User: What shape does this take?
Amino acid sequence: EVQLVESGGGLVQPGRSLKLSCAASGFTFSNYGMHWIRQAPTKGLEWVASISPSGGSTYYRDSVKGRFTISRDNAKSTLYLQMDSLRSEDTATYYCATGRAGYPFAYWGQGTLVTVSS
Amino acid sequence: DIVMTQGALPNPVPSGESASITCQSSKSLLHSNGKTYLNWYLQRPGQSPQLLIYWMSTRASGVSDRFSGSGSGTDFTLKISSVEAEDVGVYYCQQFLEYPLTFGSGTKLEIK
Assistant: This one.
């Protein structure tokens, strides 16, 4: 059974950093692209970043480019999101997700809440 | 960026009735390989989203056959036949033809 467990969320001041983790199990992690998707309180879903199975290719939405870094450790079956220079508009529940061609978001974690506030 | 626009439902929908959710993309999602890069998700209250439909019309594993997806390159419909209490939540369409991957704003379904 595919399991994705996010951690690392919390309350952080504007301008500070936070690193999220997503521990994966139940599948061959190194064969799957991985993604971060966020949802601001009472709002819709917003794709944040993606990384290829090898980690050689990464993609970001414009609003986080240069501030967020997606990475992975295939030996540890773990996905990361390093978030720097955080802003109030980054406040959201962050989900990690995975899937295959045709369904990149087939499996979702339970999410971790990031609150950016002074 | 590809903009995804979703329609609203005439909530609440009576239990047992059908409901159709529309989604429109600002660019054709029909790839040269013949596949349409459009997926549907349901987010039940307090839960993570779940995949319902991929490649526009293929039901994901374990999804009830009451759910069906159809459409063209830019106009799509998710139909729920005979809605049930467990169908309550917000439905999202999403394109994965190109980055940035984008979602519709969501369509809420309430049951009467």
Observations:
- Residues 49 and 60 of chain A are 4 Å apart (CA to CA).
